C-alpha cells in the first residue's frame, strides 16, 4: 500500500485537515448530484459551507444517492427511504429512526460492495455525524470511483509499467495506489529529470513532479497551458496555484488546492493524480510483436506454474524429510549441548585450577627471584668483606712486621745495654779489689738491692706470663667461636664427625675429620665461601701463633737476660765475699775503698732500677699494642662469623672440608 501522506502531515492541525478534505469532497458531491431534484427540493444540495456535510449525510439519503451515482445499481431505489426527518427521531409513533437506521445500514453495505473498508463504521456513527468516520467513508467512496479504471483490464497499456524481470502477475497483484505511483514514476523516467516520488505528500510539495508528468501525458497542450512557467515562480503557494491553473486548462483540476499541495495532503493529492490518470494516461498499447512476446511470456508463466506445482510436491516431500532430519538433529544438538555444557564446566574447573597453579608458580618464581637477588647481594657483600678482610690482614701483617722489627731493635738495644752492664760489672769487679770496712752494712745493702732486683724480675715475669695467658685464652675463644660458626653442617648425602679442639695452643686448628660420601661440587658457591672462611681462619691462627711465638721469644730473651744478670750478680757477690775474706787482716786499710765501692754499686743499682722501670714501661706499651691487635682480629672474626651465620645456604647439603682434609 502506498503511503499517501508523510510524517510532515501529522504536524498539520487536525481541524484544518478536516476542513480541506470536507471542501474537496463537498465539491465532488455537489458536482455529482447537482441534477438530483429530490435533493435540491429538500435543500440538501448544494452543500455550503463544507462542514455542513456531516448534517446532510446523517439520514443516509445523500450517501445512498452518491453511491448509486458512482456505481449505478448498487442500491435499489425502492430501498432508499426518502421521506425521513432527523428532527422526528424522538417523536412518539414515528418510524424515522428505523428508516434512518435502515438507510445507513444500506450505506455501509453499499460501500463494502465497492471494496471500501467499513470496519468499526455503523449506522449510529453516520447518524451522529462523526467527522473522522464520515470523512473516511466519503474518501473511500471517492477513491473507489477514481480507481475503478486503474487496472490492467481497463487499461491493457499499463503492461508498459512492468520492470525487467517482472511478469503480468506482478502488475496484477499491485494495489490501485501502487499502480498510480508506478505510472507516475514511469513518466518521470521518460522525461529529462532524475526525480522520483515515493508518496503523494512531501515528494510532490514542490510541484516539479507534476510539471514533468503533465508535459509527458499532455504534450503540446500542457506547454500551451503554460506549464513551463510553473517552476519559475519562487513562492510555493503561487507555484501550486499556477500548476492547478494549467490542470484546469487541461480539464483535470479536481480535489486539491494550492494550500493542500504545499502542505502535502496525501489523500487529496492522490485524488488529483488519479484525475490526471483518468483523463491522460499517456501510454499506448503495445505492438503486435510486443503482444506476441506477452503471450509467449504468459505461456511460459503457465508452464512454469505447472513445473512449480510439481516442484511443490517434491518440495513438500523434501520438507517432510527435512523435518524428520531436523528432529533428529535437534535431538543430537541437545545431546551435544549437554556434553558441551559438561565440557564447559570441566573447562571452567580446569581453568580455575590452572589459574591457581599459575598464581602459585608465579608467587614461587617471585620468591625465588627475591631469594636469588638477596643471595646475589649477599655474595657481593661477602666478596667486598673478604676483600676488606684481606686488606685488613695485609695491614695486620704489615703491623706485625713493624712490631717484630721494633722488638728485634729493642732486643738489640737490650743486648747492648746488657753488654754495657757486663762491662760495668767487670769494672765494678775490678774496683772491688780494694778492701774496706763496714762489711755488714755493705752486705745488707747488697742483699736489699738483690731482693729489689728479684722483685722487679718477678713482676716482669708475672706480667709476661699474664700477657701470654691472655693471648692464649683469646686465641682459644676465637677458635671456639669460629668452630661454632663454621662447624660441621648437615648434608643430605654425607655423614660427618668432628673432633674437639686440640689443647690451648694459640694456633689450634679445627681438628675434625669429616667423611663426605657425596661427590664435592666445586662450582657450589657455599663450598667456595666455606674455603675462603677456612683460609681466613687458618691465616688468623697462623698470625696469632706467630705473634705468640714472637712474644714468647721476647719473654725467653728477657728470662735469659735476667738469668745472665743474676749470674753476674752472683759472681759479684762471690767476688765481694772472696775480697772480704782475703781482706780481713787489713780491714782498716780497705774501708775507704769499700765505701767508694758501695757508693758505686748504689749508683749502679739506681741506674739498673731506672733501666728496669723503662723496660717495664716499654713492655706495657707492647702489651697494650698486642691487646689492640688481638681486639682488632677478634672483631674482624666475629663480624665475619656473624654475617656467615645469617647467610642461608643455597643447597640442601653442603660438603664441609676441615683444615686437615684440605
Automatic annotation (TrEMBL):
Region described as Disordered: spans on this chain: 485-527
BP GO terms, sorted: actin filament bundle assembly; actin filament network formation
CDD domains linked to this entry: CH_PLS_FIM_rpt1 (cd21217), CH_PLS_FIM_rpt2 (cd21218)
A cellular-component GO term for this protein: actin filament bundle
Domain of life the protein comes from: Eukaryota
Composition skew (Polar residues), residue ranges: 488-498
Calponin-homology (CH) domain ranges (all copies): 19-146, 174-281
Assigned keywords, A-Z: Actin-binding, Coiled coil, Repeat
Pfam families recorded: CH
Coiled coil: 319-346, 404-431, 562-632
GO terms of molecular function: actin filament binding
PANTHER family named among the record's database cross-references: FI19014P1, FIMBRIN/PLASTIN
UniProt protein name: Calponin-homology (CH) domain-containing protein
